[in-house]
Amino acid sequence: MDVKNKNIFISGAAARIGRALALALARQGAIITVHYHHSRPGIVKNLLRKLAEISGQGGHNAVQADFSSPPHRLENLIDRHYDILINNASVFHRTPLTRETYTDARNQFNINYWAPYILINSFQRRFMARGRRRQGVIINILDQRITKIDANSSSYSLSKKALADLTMSAAALFAPHIRVNAIAPGPVFPPKGIISKKMKLELSDVPLGKKVALNDLTDSCLFLINNDSITGQIIFVDGGQHLNILHKP
Predict the structure, then answer these.
(1) How far is CA 224 from CA 182, 229, 243, in A?
(2) Backbone angles phi, psi at 9, to 5 degrees
(3) Is residue 219 part of a domain?
(4) How far, in Å, are 47, 109, 216, 227 from residue 123 at the CA level?
(5) Secondary structure element (H or E) that encloses residue 63, with its range
(6) Which residue, 39, 36, 45, is CA-closest to 12?
């Protein structure tokens, strides 16, 4: 699929990975809807202005929504004009199971799993209402942790694993009209509240020994959008971190 003039909804697009995805897709001529939650209005306005500049066209817009609220409130965020949905919004709290409260666990699942679940179903219903000659695309942003047991990030890891399974289920159910794939990044930015020293420690477990470049991540997203023969796939853009190498030779 050529993204030029396609309407793309990106959750959590005002900062970090979501912002990079929005800019990369706008450079290819896409029309972006930026979803945000906490970002200041000035930051969002500046991003919309930047999107217009690099795409050479208007039509970019922003919507504010709290994904930690009851998920059914999110159904109307996706209307029938979207061609591509990118579920990027996420929250990460490194808390072991023995210390995590139900409220904290529910919050992570609401944002990391239930919100994408609602948006995916809403996208499918509204997209199919437009007819069956078009092809839609859904991309879910996961985490390389989905291949591991991470006892210190219990609900975060579980919510991302659930989203990975949802990716496969949706890919099977929505074919041939909507392709559903995912990207599982490794270390790109330090998670909020995590100091850079811990980021360096995490990089020591990455076989390629470096953090993931934003361009590599956005290129993977463009690849999955452009390749009309791929569905039900997860691309690990993590420097090999998912290999879980315990002892290097």
Answers:
(1) 8, 9, 22
(2) -100, 125
(3) yes
(4) 24, 20, 27, 20
(5) strand 61-64
(6) 36
Q: Which residues pair with 87 in a beta bridge?
A: 140
CATH assignment at residue 223: 3.40.50.720
Q: How many secondary structure helices (H) and strands (E) does the chain include?
A: 7, 7
Residue 239 domain flag: yes
**Is the residue at 20 inside a domain?**
yes
Cα gap 122→128, rounded to integer Å:
10
Q: How far apart (Å, rounded) are the C-alpha atoms in residues 224 and 171?
A: 13
pLDDT in tens, 202-240: 677 788 888 899 999 999 999 999 999 999 999 999 999
Token reading at 182: 């995912």
Total of domains in the chain: 1
Average pLDDT over residues 6-16: 96
pTM of the prediction? 0.92
